[in-house]
Design brief:
The chain is α/β, with parallel strands linked by helices. The chain contains nine helices and eleven strands. The chain has a seven-stranded mixed sheet, sandwiched between helices. Bound molecules: alpha-D-glucopyranose (GLC) and magnesium ion. The site of magnesium ion (MG) has 6 residues, from loops.
Length: 256
């Protein structure tokens, strides 16, 4: 058994095929493997937007959706987000005040309202330098907020609670589902995917169209760098995993 936690845009979804390549491949895998693999989308899109996309594309229905860069977890068919995760993110998070503070810095332009959520303040900031981002993070800390900055595609800046991000949400969900991280495969193409790809126990797939920050990052355990792009790259990585399951991966270091 494995569980695939995959980013959507630029990873399993491209507008040119409307998710068909991945949809077809996943359907075949379901028939080929027993037990059938499980699917979780792990995306920067909002929950509503993700559900809309699934409905209007060939993307298969997932069991769970991690949306808003790990700021929300939701089960298929549930009317709202998974409350234990929201409760986990709440302490010390002041969305409106943090959003106002970033706006006052006059560094970045706010993303549209539908990209903001209770635990995610999102901005456009082209070519922000690592130093400028570190300075902003420090400014937030000086105000008493333990926020984290996630920068993707040299443009998208997400400010999240310290405990959020795609990787932490995936860890939380795996624990809830009693799935070992060694049975988890992750796939992505941009900066916000880093936190899930760097989980040491998982099998990580980086598609060939991934941004350089991801392709050039060094990881604690080997990652599969596909030679194909997007859905074909994910397929390539999954086939490699199925053909030759990697050696047992190290357990995560004890954070204490
Ligand atoms: C998606 C989201 C956007 C976010 C970006 C990077 O495009 O809609 O809000 O900034 O992913 O995480
Ligand atoms: Mg992407």
């Amino acid at each position: 058994m494995f569980l695939l936690s995959t980013d959507i845009d630029g990873t399993v979804y491209e507008p040119r095929d409307n998710g068909q390549l991945f949809g077809d491949y996943w359907a075949k895998l379901q028939g080929r493997l027993t037990p059938a693999p499980r699917l979780v989308y792990n995306t920067g899109r909002s929950l509503a937007d993700t559900r809309r996309l699934i409905e209007h594309s060939h993307l298969p229905d997932p069991e769970w959706i991690i949306s808003g860069v790990g700021s929300t977890i939701a089960q298929r068919g549930a009317s709202g987000p998974f409350a234990p995760w929201s409760e986990h993110l709440s302490p010390g998070w002041e969305q409106a005040a943090i959003h106002d503070y970033i706006g006052q810095q006059d560094l970045a332009q706010a993303q549209p309202a539908e990209c903001q959520s209770s635990f995610k303040s999102s901005w456009f900031w082209e070519n922000a330098s690592p130093e400028a981002l570190a300075q902003l993070e420090q400014g937030l800390r000086a105000q008493g907020w333990e926020a984290q900055l996630v920068y993707s595609s040299q443009r998208d800046l997400d400010i999240l609670p310290k405990r959020a991000n795609k990787g932490n949400a995936l860890r939380f969900l795996a624990q809830e589902l009693v799935v070992s991280l060694r049975e988890v495969i992750v796939a992505g193409d941009s900066g916000n995917d880093l936190s899930m790809i760097e989980i040491p126990e998982v099998f990580g797939i980086i598609v060939n169209n991934a941004e350089s920050s991801l392709r050039e990052a060094s990881f604690a355990s080997p990652r599969y760098l596909a030679s194909e792009e997007s859905a074909l790259g994910v397929q390539e990585g999954l086939e490699s995993f199925l053909e030759k399951p990697p050696l047992p991966r190290p357990a995560a270091a004890d954070p204490c």
